[in-house]
Amino acid sequence: MNDKSLQIPKRIKRSDQIVESVKRWVALNRMEPGERLPNERELMQQFECSKGTVREALKSLEVQGLVTIRTGPNGGAVLERVPFEKASELLRNYLHFDQPSGPEIYALRTLIEPEIAALATPRITEEDLDSLEALVKCCEMTPETLEERIDQRIAELDFHVLLAQRCGNAMLSFIGRFVNDMIRDLVIFKKSALPEQREFSCANLAYHRQLIDALRARDASRARQLMHEHMKSAEHFNRELEGQLHQHFLGATR
Amino acid sequence: MNDKSLQIPKRIKRSDQIVESVKRWVALNRMEPGERLPNERELMQQFECSKGTVREALKSLEVQGLVTIRTGPNGGAVLERVPFEKASELLRNYLHFDQPSGPEIYALRTLIEPEIAALATPRITEEDLDSLEALVKCCEMTPETLEERIDQRIAELDFHVLLAQRCGNAMLSFIGRFVNDMIRDLVIFKKSALPEQREFSCANLAYHRQLIDALRARDASRARQLMHEHMKSAEHFNRELEGQLHQHFLGATR
DNA sequence: CTAGATTTGTTCGTATGTATC
DNA sequence: TGATACATACGAACAAATCTA
Q: What is the pLDDT of residues A142-160, one digit of tens each?
């Protein structure tokens, strides 16, 4: 009962009321993804408002990623799981004026990746192990071009994303994927002219191979320990890299 | 005159294009919170579209928490930092069909709270310490009513929220606040008829007092260690509590 | 305190494109 | 192929909020 309505003496927008009503209705009826919301006409009658207002409310739900709106017969708003990409984008907006630095990202990563590895150990399937080995294979050859180097870094990150998706803890999984996304952006945008860091790649490759062994042996505590060392190593190399970049772009920081 | 070569394969909605354009424009111009976006009329001219379409785009930005829209002279859309509550709400939507369990929440909390405490140690101010002590004071008296008991649990959580706000790592801070919000909901909704757990409250009180001492002494590693023990203790009591509740509601789970 | 100016907010009517049957 | 149902988009008119003189 303790709603925002207590805080807002001012007029609450009609469409926002509808959004809240629909959300409550979905939660109360335990609606599942794929079920359809009433169409525009029914909603207009239900809430005694115009087409445009209903449309604005549906638009709001769509922006939040809660529904997708299909056109055509039997179209309309259908309930959806919020896709990761949408949630990720919205959290990025939150961080827009407070961009996390490289070291901050790596600090968080060092905290959570070991736990993700441990939780994923009993849940990983044979197919997952095959996928992980395929990703490792991508990183075996020595990269010729800058693009190949970036592709390898992304394959390394995908290794961690797959583990995050399998860890079984929705929040931990989200954070893991989000953090790896942030690092991917660092790799792609900020450091497209990044030095080779051959040592770094080799260390990662070795850790990933050992991690696969630990996963296959279902040895969670070894996976945790390996991942922790891996992250400490990555943190170290990143610090080194940022130091080098700082040398190059003295005064051009932002 | 239906020339297919003129048809653009994109089915991206006009308003979404406008949203993306505005976002790019904001990022490129390094716009700060408080600055105003062009008003509806100018945007209509800029993007050669109708008022309704512009409004839909602005609404989208508002739902994402990126702008607030005021009416009247000098009104319009002004750039905002996304408030925590908005980002939190959107992440909750993401988790709606994958509700984290109590143990999952506490597992994440155990990972991050010690680091938050350590990072906050050098950054906490005298005023913050006063606030923390005030929160501890709330938990000293023995609660008479259920409501008092809940208020004390919330004061305990606010202790952690304040630390999270001061830890200086935006992502860690967000996760800390989010996790404590989730626990607050557990306290308020699921366990309003929760048993007294006197031992739990006393343990928390003791830990919080010791934490304040460590913070005052600027002893980050002790703060980290204390918080870790605190979280392990809380995790244990929560497991005990969930066991009790499970006894009561056998078969009534969902 | 009132009146007017400015800007957003809401609604109606209409037209068009598109997906499904 | 055509009919239908729905979203998308436009424009005009009016309502409401808010600032300023």
A: 888 888 888 999 999 999 9
The answer to whether the CB of A35 falls within 8 A of the CB of A79 is yes
* Chain B residues near residue A97 by CB distance under 8 angstroms: 32-33, 81
Average pLDDT of span B33-39 = 93
Q: Which residue of B has its CA nearest to A111?
A: B111
Pick the closest to residue A55 from A18, A90, A23, A13 (CA basis).
A18
Contacts (Cβ under 8 Å, ≥6 apart) of B162: B128, B131, B132, B135
Say what angle helices B126-138 and B198-216 make with each other, to 10 degrees.
Answer: 170
Q: Where are the alpha helices (DSSP H) in B139-193?
A: 146-166, 170-185
A171:B95 CB<8 A: yes
Distance CA A209, CA A220 (A): 15
3-class SS at A125?
Answer: coil
Name every residue whose Cβ is closer than 8 Å to that of residue A163 and which is 6 or more positions away in sequence: A113, A116, A117, A120, A124, A176
Amino acid identity of B32? E
pTM above 0.85, yes or no: yes
Q: Which helix (H) or strand (E) holds B63?
A: helix B51-63
Q: Residue A128 corresponds to which amino acid?
A: D
How high is the pLDDT of residue A193?
65
| Smallest CA–C1' separation from A58, nucleotide | D7
Q: Which residues contact B136 (CB under 8 A, 6 or more apart)?
A: B159, B205, B208, B209, B212
From the list B82, B93, B99, which residue is nearest A64 (CB)? B93
Place of tokens 């809430």: A47
Helix (H) or strand (E) holding A69: strand A67-70
Residue type, A222: R
Report the first-to-last Cα separation within chain B, whole angstroms. Answer: 58
* Mean pLDDT calculated for residue range A109-130: 97
- For residue B28, pLDDT over 60 is answered with yes
Residues A90 and B83: beta-carbon distance below 8 Å: no
